[in-house]
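Quick look at the format.
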Amino acid sequence: MIKKFSFYIFLFSSLSVVYGFRLIKDSSFYRGVFCVITFFMAKKKKTSNFIRYKEGLWIPYRYVLYNYWWQFLKSAHQEGRKIDWKYYKEWGTPEEIFSTTFRTWWVKNWERLFAVKSRYGVDKFPMTTKQAKPDAIKVALEVYKNKDLKDGWDIIIHLQKKYPTNMMSISGQGATETKEVNRTIKRYRNQAETILKYVCEGKFP
């Protein structure tokens, strides 16, 4: 990027010499050149987080995030929360969505609901951020699923047995005191509640 920027500065300087010293006093000339340089630099920086999935199509977010969205929606439905089903109309009825596994539902619907033809396509169901953290969302989901376990240590022990290599973050990387553990569990519970609230409104995460 530094080399590219240097090139543009060189171009800017060269144009000043070519068109004469009198242009130094012409601010409109510099504004024009600056706009051109900015345009090309921005064009070079344009990126996309879309993921090439299959059959030449892209999905805007990681597969696992759609899985977590589906699972949170299922929890909200099972608990009888008020859900904006108009937003999820294309997903199907609650019976059609949740009478099977996520994988089965995904295979049947992913191309129609989430696929785009290019990495800069417009997704029909955008998430609230491109920087969602799947690991943190997974922990929040699992903590919420085990909300009947009141004690923080019980939840941690249960999840670390169930996911011995995938739940390192839940311990707070060295949390040993009960107060600290309970504070960590409470944070994930609050995160799960926030996600559930947004999911009911058609948002994730």
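Next, a different chain entirely:
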Amino acid sequence: MKVAARRRASTLNPTPDRPARSARRVSQSRVLDTSALIGWPLPELSGGFVVPAQEDELLRVSPDRGAIFAGLGLVVSEPSAQAVSSASDAARASGDMSGLSEIDLSLIALALERSALLVTDDYRMQNIATALGVEWRAVGEAGISEVWSWELRCVGCGATQAAPDSPNERRNDYGNCRVCGAALRLKKQR
């Protein structure tokens, strides 16, 4: 009993010569997508990095979690313009840009800038993180198994165009084909 109590005390009360040994200790900082804010247990969120706009998003999609946002122990931070530019360039190169929100792009940039683990179930964010060399972890899904590139393809004639260069607020509305006028859809490059 005394040995177990001493071991527990050394884990809970670390000193410089006796570091904490805890399964919960994370050596790498984490950038948390909204899926993590919704799906993870509350104690796991503490110390995670988020962007300011996530508070409004969380209030919209999960009012219960949104109401306690300030008390979750999150670190609210904005990425630098340079990091956002690098993330944007990678998203344009892969064709993922139109499937991202400004929040998604900021989270990828923040993970890149801080050399942090990106925690997300969003396949597009995982795709870009992989292309940038940013480590990621899925919240509740399996995650991607390969990196994809995207293009706009006409549902009528099959003509292709480059994927859009900016985030698309209307996620599935990519306009019409210049050749035949039918709707364009974002598809994996062949």
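The radius of gyration is 21 Å.

See the schema section for token definitions.
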